[in-house]
Amino acid sequence: xxxxxxxxxxxxxxxxxxxxxxxxxxxxxxxxxxxxxxxxxxxxxxxxxxxxxxxxxxxxxxxxxxxxxxxxxxxxxxxxxxxxxxxxxxxxxxxxxxxxxxxxxxxxxxxxxxxxxxxxxxxxxxxxxxxxxxxxxxxxxxxxxxxxxxxxxxxxxxxxxxxxxxxxxxxxxxxxxxxxxxxxxxxxxxxxxxxxxxxxxxxxxxxxxxxxxxxxxxxxxxxxxxxxxxxxxxxxxxxxxx
Length: 242
Description:
- By secondary structure, the chain is mainly beta.
- It has three helices and eleven strands; from the N terminus they run αββαββββαβββββ.
- The protein has a single domain, classed as Porin (Beta Barrel), CATH 2.40.160.
């Protein structure tokens, strides 16, 4: 009798997990909210000597943070292992967009804003804590590699004061992300996660720009660069598995 009960319990346990989350192709969309930092720093030289301190507030330096709103698209394949299906991997391509408004105190005549496009591929580990016929609940963590493209306004200001400058539109990026996920009714999934980019992007650089510090003195040479960094992105995603 003991063997029969033990066998029955084992069968019920295996049956409950047999209906766990399935492997398959998926597509997901997300709303994303984060914070972006933009920093412009300049240094001045005159006759080979560093005169940055003499230039003081004349140099176009700033450092500002603002909130970012955006959306994301993810397409890939998730794969679960073993009969219990408590562990899996997913492989995907992603495209994220974010808009940041830094306000009116950077440019002289208009608000400064950036539009970010982040794209690449990634891999996540999937860990299901609950895995039943009605659905699953678990956590995920992974990494991504790709690139960022930042598009900023203020081109007229740039052309007037930084005529030697060159914008950079593509920067290598790598990210880590983690969160909580659930899958229900076989095809539908919801996730809440955090994505953190690991690299800062240089979006503009100007070398040896003539700059007037003192009208009675020769022009200085000013080097300027603008760096922008998405600090983090919190997102809510809906995913559909085919």
